Amino acid sequence: MRLRTILGKIILWIFLLTVAFITLIPVVITILGSFKTNAELTAGATFLPESWHFSNYAEAWSQANFSRYTLNSLMVSLAAVVGTLLVSSMAAYVVDRMDFAGKKLYIGLQSFTMFVAVGAVVLRPQFDLMVKLHLHNSLWGVILILISAHASIFFILFSFMKGIPRELDEAALIDGCSPGRTFWRIILPLLGPGLGVGALFTFRGAWNEYLLPLVFTMTKPELQTLTVGLANLKYGISAASQTHYMMAGACLSILPILVAYLFANKSFMQMTAGSLKG
User: Fold this and answer.
1) Angle at CA of residue 201, ends 191 and 165, nearest 5°
2) What's the start-to-end Cα distance of the chain, in Å?
3) What is the 3-state secondary structure (H, E, C) of the chain?
4) How far is CA 54 from CA 31, 34, 50, in A?
5) Mind telling me which residue stretches traverse the membrane in this protein (predicted)?
6) Tens-place pLDDT, residues 157-170
7) Which residue among 12, 168, 196, 213 is least crowded, i.e. fewest CB within 10 A of its CB?
8) What is the pTM of this model?
9) CA-CA distance, 63 to 168, in Å (whole number)?
10) Mean pLDDT of the region 179-200
11) Backbone φ, ψ for residue 235 (5° rounding)
């Protein structure tokens, strides 16, 4: 029995290390490639750079107009986070705490939207809608579409809401709080871990979004986000390939995601601890 336990642990560690290797090796290759020349990348003869070209980052920053595009990406991502969390948390509170006609239908529709790709399939009707709202030449059109794709965050908060005792609502009602005030003053602060996880998922999705910003900023390049700007690094003057600059830009674009994860890491731990306790 002891030998079987040891063998099981060895197999488990081999599996985990294999998954970690498969996950991390593309990131390592990108980081190392960002310090190489384009000729080295094309040849692919060496794993480590022959000489470390830190200037690739400066060139990528200037050529991709990183400062402007980063501000645009931050605006889209942060606005999408705030809007998604606000809409999802209020919807989760109403669905969990109140009874109304069509409640099951609403939950079913939310589930259905999770299986519809918010991409090429619905891009044309989304764009036509934003044209009617006069938001097709603005990043606000992108933000509204990203907020509308909130079903997964709704279900995260909805399941988390079920763990908050209803006695708190009853006590607040006795103290004279309206449902709206109960939500803002009592329920929302208790949703902290769920909101942190939802914020991370929403920020990551909005930050990495490429198709929507590309379509909505075709006539206004100054509104392009970082993902769209990075694609412009692929070819330089005379259509010369600039893969090394693209890798350097990709490494720079990863940094905000890492910062967001560091802020949301505590929420992940709290959700994991809560699920184990339950």
Assistant:
1) 15
2) 31
3) CHHHHHHHHHHHHHHHHHHHHHHHHHHHHHHHHCCCCHHHHHHCCCCCCCCCCCHHHHHHHHHCCHHHHHHHHHHHHHHHHHHHHHHHHHHHHHHHHCCCCCHHHHHHHHHHHCCCCCCHHHHHHHHHHHHHCCCCCCHHHHHHHHHHCCHHHHHHHHHHHCCCCCHHHHHHHHCCCCHHHHHHHHHHHHCHHHHHHHHHHHHHHHHHCCHHHHHHCCCCHHHCCHHHHHHCCCECHHHCECHHHHHHHHHHHHHHHHHHHHHHHHHHHHHHHHHHHC
4) 11, 8, 13
5) 12-35, 74-95, 107-127, 139-161, 182-203, 245-264
6) 998 888 888 888 88
7) 12
8) 0.79
9) 55
10) 86
11) -125, 135
15-48: per-residue pLDDT in tens?
A: 999 999 998 888 888 888 888 887 777 777 677 8
Contact 160, 193 (CB under 8 A): yes
Token pair listed for 236? 């330089």
